[in-house]
Amino acid sequence: MRHPHTRTTRRRVVGALTAGLLCAAGLAAPAVAAPDRTPSAPAPADGLAPTPPMGFNNWNSTHCRADFDEAMVKGIADLFVEKGLRDAGYRYVNLDDCWALPRRDAQGELVPDPARFPHGIGAVADYVHAKGLKLGIYTSAGTRTCDSVGFPGALGHEFSDARQFADWGVDYLKYDNCNNQGVDAGQRYRTMRDALRATGRPIVYSICEWGENKPWEWAGDVGQLWRTTGDISDSWSSMLSIVKQNLPLAPYAGPGHWNDPDMLEVGNGGMTDTEYRSHFSLWSVMAAPLLIGTDLRKASEATFDILDNKEVIAVDQDPLGRQGTVVTSTGGRWVIAREMADGSRAVALFNESASAQRIATTASAVGLPDADAYTLRDLWQHRAYNTAGTIAATVPAHGTVLLRVSADPHWADHPPATELGVDGGTLLEAGTPATLTSTVADLGRTPARRVSVSLTGPDGWSARATSATTAAALATGRSLRTGWRVTAPAGTPTGAYDLTLRTSYRSPAGQRVTATLPLTASVVLPPPSGTSYLSDLPWLSASSGWGPVERDTSNGESAAGDGHPITVGGTAYAKGLGVHALSDVSFYTGKACEKVTADVGVDDEKGTAGTVAFEIWADGKKAASTGVLTNALPARPVTADVTGAEVVRLVVTDGADGVDSDHADWADARLSC
Q1: Which pLDDT belongs to residue 354?
Q2: Helices (H), 371-508
Q3: Which residue of the set 69, 96, 231, 260 is catalytic?
Q4: Is 113 a catalytic site residue?
Q5: Annotated active-site residue in 161, 176, 260, 262
């Protein structure tokens, strides 16, 4: 994924950072065990960043375009105040690359671009400070910055540049890693640390060397935060890859020394709101810096609702400073728990898969003491319940349920928690009934009374109950199970449609509770008889680490259609799928198909770079895999027996070394039915 022209993709994404990786649903997952909670170096004794920094950085939304200017920076500062983000904890308004002219002046000093910042950086700092906020700036620990124009870097100018920053009133420095001339990373970053300290001004120091030299092992007394990976992009696969690299590094995080998995993409449009809530939840449970990366002047109310969720922010900003750790991770179902200063646990039930899944754990498993019952608060629904100890939910595809659970003596003040779930029936052929079973389970210590359940779909759809939809009461651990026949009208176009499962019940004190579970039903066509190219068939879902999945071309990393003819080992193919790791493409096979075949490999367009592994999954079971393939290898034929499978998934992982240049081809991919 390295390009010479845009800094957003030129940094190398770091791969597996710890030994002992697991495999979850075909994608790499970090080991649960952590070596030791003690960081390798003490935090700086300057009191800076006692909690992860919160603020804004323009790069993800503007890159080096002309709309990055003084007006934008001031507009963001204004919105921080007007929208309540300052009061929620967001403090830093940070400038990224391209704020300077390409050349220093005659005295060797940096010169702000007069077209972008006509009043200079000092005046911008004064404006931001007057709002009760702080200003951040950017440079690189090299001779030039990362943008292709190559603005002046600070290597060899550390003390004079730091003095300029301090004189302007800068409060935060992001120090990148481009054009570093091979100078030792520790030396380069320590020199700037010393330069910043010499100014006498408190400046938060963000080490942005992409995790290449494992800064978590040596930078605890150098800066307040360090990047653990390459750049994030506004895609599900990119965000997921970074989560898996950052999670194992929990032992190194704490007050004044934070793991930084890169800026937020929330609101930039490349993910759904469900995925953005997962992004924000996971960054918070990982005690990550929360740097908004979208242009708030154009942001939707849904984006503001995510960024301003104060209960989720409180998890991120918890003063104990413990990063969350993995409790379990199997089949794309993650439980991540974070110890909080008040003794409670923040618990993320995270579903990385493309379909809804039940995810469950217990109060004991997340580290809480034995108790008669617990208070469980849903931080996105802003509701509290009691639980006898089970922590569970059916989590939508790519969704996260974020909870705060405590051994609270006042648990009985809250109604019992219930769990809504569904088995089967979310893939339908138009005009043909599908059956599914809903479950309402009482997880609480107290009974749920006058329980009812309903299922609704789009206009014209039928959702008919085939068994009881009510129960007088459910005791702890008991369930109401209801069968349903769901029919999409004949002629319904293929695609995804919303269903809603809803329950209503009362607590022993008479509190009325309603809960809903949004579901996605996909109307599908039966697979064609005979042998078909997969690139000619509709897919159920498709994700790619950079750029979209491409039909009959390679993956070009950016917009649809920017790929090239599929070529592996010098052989060109007219048909196939071009993807970029991490990738997952699923097809409906309707239990009517027998075999998938393909020639697979790393596309020649990346030269000698790229390492990937191909997997074919049939209804959640791995049916074939290649092991790690490199660009030096010819195409590898792969065949999978998918007899009886309803859904087949084509998965590409990163070969356990990061996703840099991982352009993967499913050449001549065919399905036999």
Answers
A1: 84
A2: none
A3: 231
A4: no
A5: 176
